[in-house]
Write a structure and sequence with these properties.
Belongs to the ATP-dependent AMP-binding enzyme family. GO terms for molecular function: medium-chain fatty acid-CoA ligase activity. It comes from Labilibaculum filiforme. With 354 residues, this protein is α/β, with parallel strands linked by helices. It has two domains: 207 residues, 3-Layer(aba) Sandwich (Rossmann fold), CATH 3.40.50; 97 residues, GMP Synthetase, Chain A, domain 3 (2-Layer Sandwich). It has nine helices and 20 strands. The model has no long low-confidence stretch (mean pLDDT 93).
């Protein structure tokens, strides 16, 4: 399908081309220009589009993505969520990245009504109507909860681009929206697995989409076989507990693993235990240590407080963590480094402190 409905107005392919080109002339709004530019790129005669990864684990990668595989991905998503022609889809993610691009492709394929809003941290800042489907990053969902957004406006909410921590998941139990966590990356053309987060369907593991299967490499990292979106299986740096070839529990990133005194510790699992106790953004990381190899350090996004605050916090942590998970030090950082779409950059943040 090469026609599209935007903000309730339907455009044929010819009308869409004229509309997008005219908007690029008249609007100076960067995010709007990004949307119209991508639509024009999608409608051109090339068989692929240029996409870049978020850069949360390193330097962003630029890659060619097959339009055919993007259509296949959109088809899998629509099948899972049972999209119907004319349903509304909120585009609140930047079309500079795969998640935003795929929202547009899904709207093309399933003939959804694509609602455009500023892809900042506040999706419902200037929009208060019902949507059938929305995809957001965790920070946007957290802001919606803090701002008292009426979640009855959102029928289905897909959360991706970062881990949904226990605190956020607990809050989602109180909303009427059907909420899901997605697993995927730019290389897999958006998500290949989904986990229901609330309601009667809630699960603690991810399930692969149709014809997607999983296995482990020698590091216990996830390997993905998804013929519809991948030319060959790929190996990730995500350490998982594999339940069977269709289901897994995500444990953490292999490149984040801390080797302290001969023990392998997953920062993400330790962070889960601290959610709700620390009000600010934080993360656990390993830093070089003469005796342990690496020692655990807690990094908090906060102006440096009093030494008393630090001592009290260390004391509180003792009761929540076992002896191997204890932070040997707490470091405070005024502002963490993040990617343009809000993902935390651990190593880049630490480089600010060195």
């Amino acid at each position: 399908m090469r026609e599209l409905t935007i903000n309730g107005k339907h455009y044929s392919e010819a009308e869409l081309l004229l509309f997008c080109k005219s908007q690029l002339v008249v609007t100076n709004c960067v995010w709007e220009r990004d949307v119209y530019s991508f639509i024009l790129e999608w409608l051109d005669t090339k068989g692929s589009i240029i996409a870049k990864s978020s850069g949360s684990t390193g330097v962003p990668k630029v890659m060619d993505l097959s339009k055919e595989r993007m259509i296949n991905s959109a088809r899998l998503t629509g099948e899972y969520f049972k999209f119907k022609k004319g349903q509304t889809a909120l585009l609140c993610l930047s079309t500079n990245f795969i998640a935003g691009k795929m929202m547009v492709v899904r709207a093309f394929l399933w003939q959804l009504n694509l609602i455009l809003v500023n892809p900042n941290g506040h999706p419902f800042e200037n929009y208060r109507s019902k949507v059938d489907f929305a995809a957001m990053v965790p920070l946007q969902v957290i802001n919606c909860l803090r701002e008292g957004v009426d979640f009855t406006l959102i029928s289905t909410l897909l959360i991706g681009g970062g881990a949904v921590d226990a605190n956020l998941e607990d809050q989602l139990q109180m909303v009427s929206s059907k909420c899901f966590s997605s697993y995927g990356m730019t290389e897999t053309v958006s998500h290949v697995a989904i986990k229901p987060l609330n309601g009667n369907q809630k699960l603690n593991f991810y399930e692969g989409l149709r014809n997607v299967t999983f296995s482990l490499d020698e590091r216990s990292c996830l390997q993905i076989d998804a013929p519809a979106v991948l030319s060959e299986p790929i190996c990730t740096n995500d350490v998982v507990k594999l339940l069977d070839e269709k289901h897994f529990i995500w444990l953490g990133r292999y490149d984040n693993v801390i080797n302290s005194g001969g023990l392998k510790l997953f920062p993400e699992q330790i962070e889960e235990k601290l959610r709700g106790m620390i009000g600010e953004a934080f993360f656990i990381i390993g830093v070089a240590d003469q005796f342990l190899g690496q020692k655990l350090v807690l990094v908090i996004e906060k102006e440096t407080p009093s030494s008393e605050y630090k001592l009290n916090l260390l004391e509180k942590i003792k009761g929540l963590l076992n002896k191997y998970e204890q932070a040997r030090d707490i470091i405070f950082c005024k502002e963490f480094k993040r990617t343009p779409n809000g993902k935390l950059q651990r190593e880049a943040t630490m480089s600010l402190l060195n």
